[in-house]
Amino acid sequence: KEQNKQKFSAGYRAAHFFGQAGIYLFLIVMALIVLFPFYWMIISSLKSLPEYKETIPTFWPRQIIWQNYANAFTTANLGVLFKNTLIVGVVSTLLSVFITIITAFAFARLEFKGKNLLFGVLLSLMMIPTELVVITNYQTISAWNMKNSFAGLILPSVTSVFYIYLLKENFAQIPDE
Fold first, then answer.
1. Which residues of the chain have pLDDT under 50?
2. ∠ CA(93), CA(95), CA(97), 5° rounding?
């Protein structure tokens, strides 16, 4: 019995070791697959234009050209673009969080006439794909003269029915006390 126990335990240890090795091998391969596009983006940005356009790609640039980054910042004015992205991202996130919190709290804690009907209508909006309202949003932004403005970028994205629903359910689970 003791000898069988030792064989079982040695076999178990070997199986456990190879199982763990297989898991780590799988994770390493998946990490490489996920990280490869970032690697490709970075090395492509360091290549010369003729090397970048070659039909057979190179996995490492023949000559690293750091000047490409300076050219990108001066040609496309990337500093202003980054600043605009930061403004739109921060403001739309803050507005979205504020609107989501007050709306979810109202649906979870306040009692008012038509609350369930209004919440049902809000939930039914989740069935409308975002792609379907792109043209309508554009027409609204154009009619309100908000094209080429921060407001035109921020306002269409400040509400999320899904987040309101999740937060409302979360608020509803907290006791009133």
1. none
2. 65
